[in-house]
Amino acid sequence: xxxxxxxxxxxxxxxxxxxxxxxxxxxxxxxxxxxxxxxxxxxxxxxxxxxxxxxxxxxxxxxxxxxxxxxxxxxxxxxxxxxxxxxxxxxxxxxxxxxxxxxxxxxxxxxxxxxxxxxxxxxxxxxxxxxxxxxxxxxxxxxxxxxxx
Length: 149
Ligand SMILES: [Zn+2]
What we know:
Layout: H1 5-11, E1 18-21, E2 25-29, E3 39-43, H2 55-74, E4 81-85, E5 101-106, H3 126-141
Antiparallel strand pairs: 1-2, 2-3, 3-5, 4-5
The chain binds zinc ion.
Residues 1, 4, 6-7, 46, 98 line the site of zinc ion (ZN).
C-alpha cells in the first residue's frame, strides 16, 4: 500500500540497511534498535495482520527468522540470547500496519524490560484453564486445515 513505510522500503523508495532478501521476504535493520543487531523480517506483500497472511508466507517468515537469529548470534554483536517479538494489532503495540517480526539480541544488563505485574496477578484455576483451552480448540477446528488432537 502506497502510504506504508515498509512497502516503500520494499519498493526501494525509502532506504534500508538490508540483511536478507528473496522473492517473498525482506530483512533489514530496525532504525530504532533495542540492541545492536535488531533486525526486522517482513513479507514483501502488504499484510496488515497475521490473519491476512497465507500460511506459506508465514512458514517462510519463520524459517528466515530462525536463520537470521543464528546469523545475529554469529555476527559479533553483543548477544547472549535472542528475543522474537511480533506485535499483531494496535493493542499489542503494532506501530507499522504491515506484518513484521522483530529479532533482537539480549545480554545480561541490557535495558530491555517487559513490564507485567506478575506478583499481584490472580492466576486461573484448572477449571478456567480447561474452559479457555476448549474455546481455543473449538475455534481451531473451524479453520481450514486446522484441528488436531
Ligand atoms: Zn506495507
